[in-house]
Specification:
The chain is mainly alpha-helical. It contains five helices and four strands.
């Protein structure tokens, strides 16, 4: 008995069995890891270790022994500042200063290209809209060979908007680099200033647990008693005077 199949055979495997509309190709995750991936992860780990070392150096030791949450808070905000400034700041640099000049014989970009400023008309092969006033340029980390550009090219394998000029992503990163990063650094300054011994507004002492000693009686927990002495002390006979 022979079985005939109609149509092409689907060799993809769905992510979830109950959602067959999201197929993925059976690619091993190990094959997606490259040297650029390892270097990018190592750079992030380096920034985290630098934040831990700087926090231990900037914060006084007595405050670290007293307030256990001081070091994690300072480290997290300092790490946040370094990530926003160095890594995401490099994305903004490549978005504004890394570009490729368009030529008439260059192939047009795909139809789902992220930013309309990089779309070109098929007749003239020129941009229908210009970014930064240059209609013959394409901006983004994709058009640079710097190590930081390689990092964003690797990141763009999951979302290609990060390799080119996308105004939505640029708007978010502008707020992140120029608002969130200084705010994180300001929080580090407040934590360091309040934990300093010479600061007038030092950190409050940690809360103390209430004593559970049963011998300690809270004030006014029992009615006050007054000792009036024994009944015999209420009246005493007068002292007799010796006759002269």
């Amino acid at each position: 008995m022979t079985t005939t199949t109609h149509g092409p055979t689907d060799t993809t495997t769905p992510i979830f069995p109950i959602f067959p509309i999201f197929p993925i190709s059976p690619i091993s995750p190990i094959s997606l890891i490259s040297t650029t991936t390892l270097i990018s992860l190592l750079s992030t780990l380096t920034l985290l270790l630098a934040a831990i070392f700087l926090s231990r150096s900037l914060l006084p030791s007595p405050a670290l022994r007293t307030h256990h949450l001081l070091l994690p808070l300072h480290t997290w905000h300092l790490f946040d500042f370094l990530i926003h400034t160095l890594l995401e700041g490099s994305f903004l640099y490549h978005s504004f200063f890394s570009y490729t000049t368009l030529l008439p014989h260059d192939p047009p970009p795909p139809s789902d290209y992220p930013h309309p400023a990089s779309l070109r008309t098929p007749s003239t092969n020129a941009n229908s809209a210009s970014f930064l006033g240059h209609s013959n340029r394409r901006y983004g980390a994709e058009h640079s060979a710097w190590p930081t550009a390689r990092l964003w090219q690797e990141y763009a394998r999951a979302d290609k908007r990060w390799a080119n000029t996308d105004t939505n992503i640029i708007s978010i990163e502008l707020l992140t680099v120029f608002v969130a990063a200084p705010l994180a650094l300001y929080i580090c300054h407040l934590l360091q200033h309040q934990s300093s011994p010479s600061s007038s507004s030092s950190l409050p002492p940690p809360p103390q647990r209430p004593s559970r000693n049963p011998n300690i009686v809270k004030p006014h927990s029992q009615p006050m008693r007054q000792n009036y002495g024994s009944p015999s002390s209420y009246w005493r006979p007068p002292k007799s005077t010796a006759a002269s």
